[in-house]
Amino acid sequence: MATDELSSKLSRRLQIEEGAEDPVAVDAPEEQNGSEEKPSTANADSELGAKLMRRGELNEGQGEPSQPSMKVFNPYTEFKEFSRKQIKDMEKMFKMYDAGKDNYIDLMELKLMMEKLGAPQTHLGLKNMIKEVDEDLDNKLSFREFLLIFRKAAAGELAEDSGLSVLARLSEIDVSTEGVKGAKTFFEAKVQAISESSRFEAEIRQEQEVKKKQAEEQKQRRAAFKELQSAFK
């Protein structure tokens, strides 16, 4: 009954606002069950008042309907100064230290990262590292915030002795000498660093090719030996 009455009041109020009906004085209904109805009635009136106020603002053009944010982070469009290969390399590093696989690097994971890089930090130092790029203030690093480290390093916006500068310097690229010379030299350094780091992979591939060739030659010798054996039988 209370719900029907509330709906009726809301419908009539909206009709009055739109000029469909003239306001009519309505006698207050008699109290029933004493004070038991007062809390629910107060809550309903408060909710009704908020809805009517919001509806009035929208009708007068003072407010805009709220819509949930549908923005999706795309590193390739937001960080255009980096190539796809560079972003993939950074993503690989990010995932390597995301031990919890929750798409964030928290304080303990950052601690492990810096220890693996050979530059352990104090607890306060780690907190300051996160704070410097923690745009959403959740006390952990998202992949976007991780990329901000390299953007700031390329632009010379990091103090040379800061933890983030150390991280960027030890992450395949030495950006300490790049300063404000811009992203171009940073990219060239990145390419050179990737070439050096991939030299080991090239050596492994070369060894695999040699082993494959040796196995093929051994297979051919065995086949030739079998043919020779069959000729004497």
From TrEMBL:
Concerning SUPFAM superfamilies, the annotation shows: EF-hand
Could you list this entry's UniProt keywords, alphabetically sorted. Calcium, Metal-binding, Repeat
Residue ranges of the EF-hand domain?
85-120, 121-156
Q: Which PROSITE patterns match?
A: EF_HAND_2
**InterPro entries assigned:** EF-hand-dom_pair, EF_hand_dom, EFHD1/2
Give the span(s) annotated as Disordered.
1-72
Q: Which Pfam families match?
A: EF-hand_7
Q: GO terms for molecular function, please? A: calcium ion binding
Task: Fetch the SMART domains from UniProt.
Answer: EFh (SM00054)
Entry-linked PANTHER family: EF-HAND DOMAIN FAMILY, MEMBER D2, EF-HAND DOMAIN-CONTAINING PROTEIN D
Protein name per Swiss-Prot or TrEMBL:
EF-hand domain family, member D2
